[in-house]
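Tutorial sheet, problem 5. The three components below are modelled jointly, 1110 residues in total.
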Amino acid sequence: MKHTIRATGAVSVTAGLLFTVILLVASSRTFAAAGDFLAGSFTSLYYFGAILNTASLFMAAGLGDAVLLTTGEFNLGGEGQIYAGGFITAVVLSATSTFPPVVSLICALAAAMAVPACMTLVSGLLRQFKNANILLTTFLVSAAVIPFIDSLIAGPFRGSYGNLLATSFIREAVRFPHILAPSPLSAAACTLPLLCTAGWYFIYRTKQGKQLQITGISNEFAEYCGYPRTKILYGTLAASGALHGITGFIAVTGTYYTCHSGFYTGMGWDALSCALIAGSNPAALIPSSLILSWIFTSADRVALNYNSGFDISSLIQGIMLSCIAIQYAGGEKHDRHHS
Amino acid sequence: MTDIILNIFFLSAPLMLASFGALISEYAGRSAIFIDGIINLSAFLCYAFTVLTKSTAAGCFFAVLFCVLFIFLFLKAVERARANPFLASLALNIFSGALVSLLSVELFGTRGVLTSPSFVFPAQTARTVTSAAAYLIIMVSVILLFATKRGLYLRITGSDSDVLLSRGINVAAGKTAAWCLAAFFASCAGCILTLRLSSFVPNISSGRGWLALAAVFLGKRTCSGTCVAVLVMCTGEYFASNLQNVFPGISAPLLISLPYVTALLLLFLEPNSTKED
Amino acid sequence: MDIALAHVSKRYLHKTVLDDLSVSFRGGMIHALLGENGAGKSTTAAILSGALQYDSGEILIGGNAVHFENQRDAVKAGIVCVRQRPLLADSISVMENILLGTEYSSAGRKLTRRNVLHEAEKYRQKWAPQLDFRARVVHIGGDERFYASLIAALICGPGVLILDEPSALLDWEQRRALYANIRELAEGGMNIIVITHIMQEAELYTDTVTVLRKGKAAEQYEHSRAFTAEMCAEACISSSAGAVRTSAGEYADGECGKTGCASCREKCTVTFTDITVRPKKRPALFGVSFRAECGALTLIKGLRESGLGTLENVVTGMESARTEGLAAIETSSSRCELTLKSKKLTPHFLRYKTGLHTAIIPSDRTFRASHPNLSIGQLLCAMHDGMVNRDYTDRLIRKADVAIQGDEKASDLSGGMLQRLILARELDTAPLYIIACEPLQGLDAQSACSTAKLLASFASKGCAVLVLSSSDFPEELCGSVYTLEGGKITGGNA
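Model answer (structure tokens):
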């Protein structure tokens, strides 16, 4: 099984890389851009650190996706949950500016986990009482929340920094320092591989994890076995939301030091791609996040240096997800035995 | 009152088309997640082909044709590669957004709003004609779906594919047809949106693809239920868009979230739906 | 139309289902195909009807080799199959189901809608006058589903008609009428192959009998009169590696102090009162009351269209529709009463909260008691405390006497193997309360007998055993027998 995941994940990433290189050569009409894409980021401390930092954000959000994917559900509202986590972090840190830094950070972390968890719990309620599709409702909740947060950032919570659409910068004392200057890699990023390892242990080495896996294979069988399905539903949704919220928390306290409008863009889909490439295996999230982070960071670097437009990143995103789709054949449910 | 009802029907036309496409894909057991992306792509192509050919009919025709062919080839690639159709159509949504932006820069030098003197239509005429065309297409499609044998096959392709297979009916062809039809309806919706605005606006779909999927779910995957769900959502949207006339202080981003909030509220308020439904 | 299989083999990863099978069926006759579970009967039918590809060998029609890429090719060649669970689309009407695929009728006949209606009406009047063509399939009974499926098959004008367990949904009168009509078809030249496990039917109604064993044709009788039930019992004796154990002691660890023997443990009685439920897509139940007592086997017999499936969902806690009624579980030390409306009667409650280690053996063994994508380890350790445990898995595999490894998939199991593993898993916990739904479904006579005896042995050890069955469960083993008909129950102590 593990060999299969590694093999098919490698195939999809390789295919995605190949397409990317072809795209870059075609758009820039030289091989220089492609060469810079493949190796350039490792020649710069800034970009190297950016890769690691972005990877850590993917790990956190990807872990949230992986937990839910294990039970057979998709969280398509990652972007809104990351945004909500980041926004509430900035707001709480600002509101607790007189508190000791540790207390302030703990409050912000708790809020960053709680608010997105509540967003996903809405989907849980709709699933339990209305049999609504979690994939759809997580997306709808996220799509409803994002403009709301935009209006708050543009309105009452806007910082007074010229034309920047962002909250006030958080105070120095609650910022995780950048450990690889001048890159945005923060100290908080170092905790994510540990979190992924803990996630792996939970899913593959505990009874609850076994129940999640079996629920993901067959809901009906899980119900027949007497698994606590309500607990599984709400627990995994809350965990998924909370982990996306942690992503926002790390982004604000470790990378941007503010919540600016749209910082979440693309993060949700990228994290989902990481989780899918990793086959929902939290341990495999570490390498898959690193690889995808490298790809997207390098694509943005090339866009800047060769003036080829940031749409390349979205194209690469789409191509990567298409290649991942090949890894996940047979997506249709069994017709007569809907879970 | 008549004006309001008429305006709601006019407003509903694009979403009604997109929802009908989503419904057909649900019948085939393969949700057309790509609808949102195709709406954006076809809106852009309708503008581009109209400006390039100086003919609105040609513009609409080529836009719809390209989108349907694109989905057909995409589906063949998915089947050949034995890929997951759901993930592949998620990818298509992302891909088409980037593609539109790239093509916009290549053809027109900007990724912003596109306008042209050869793409101007009187607002009232555009609304009336496009709405009439939309509802005519839907009525004809309903008749074909419920009164013909092929329509019967399409309707049970998702739920009873093993029955169809045992009778020698090509289920794969049915699923292909369902996605192509979904692309057809979605691309018609995209053309309508851009014709009404007499311009192309990035992300013109405004999430209508996802709302279409929500409408199908709200309508319990039936034709009449989906239509009612669309009308209810658009009624909410109609009154929301007039809110700024009454409450000038309401910010635009809040109004953007209203269709999604309406959909969620409807999900909460609709009568209890159980597993067996 | 003569049809034959010549040296046909079908293999899966770890199992050979058909092993160099050579068998022929002459036109104008009724042929019986018999065999134990896993012998290859359904696989043979699937290959002949184009639903499954074989690995080697040939299909011969009139002496000419043919190859079917899919079921459409088989239908065009004039071969149709009516399955044990008739394949019909529930959401549309009987007539619409009959119309499906009529453009691919055999010999390229193009049937117009009028032709189809006319012929369907003729068949209906002869075979099933009570069948309403306008009714939606979801609302019709099991026998009507069979006839709808049969009429749809006959419309195509087949040269070979395969009937898989045709008697499963019919009563004795209907079976006699069915075989009389089938005889007429055979006399008209049609080649009819009947897959059945009812030996008397094979003896009385068919012309030839072929017995499959382990994918080979073990016995072939050119005249079914030469075939007797005793010969079938001999032919169908499973090897010692495949039998269901018949003693409760062989399943449950009987040592006191470990899991405890039944006589030392709590006794329990389970009572259901006034169960009323009206699901949208399944038959309803009206005021159903019954009791399952300890030390006895309680049988509720009836057909699925009488509500047996709904009752199964209710007693196992899997019913999603709104349910009225009461459930009371009484042990030596406590009594617990639940309203079914509260939705507290769930599998979780039955297994973990009552202290009865309830064993639940559902009728759907493939997708409810198991799932094809589960590994054998996951299948067996699903309710075991902790992770998937290799030792525990291996122990249950040995107990079930099945040749499989823990890391293989449940999809590699035959029906009989799956049944044995499920029994081993459920009965390993020394349950005090056993719910067995359709326990004899799909089993050959030998296995059915063994399974019935096993359940009776648990009852004799003090368990409360509740059996829901639509097939012939031996009533002499039962303490109480109820009959479910039209959603209502009658009967009681035997």
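Marking note: The interface with chain B takes residues 49, 51, 70-76, 81, 83, 87-92, 96-97, 99-101, 103-104, 152, 279-282, 320-321 of chain C (CB under 8 Å). Full credit if you identified this.
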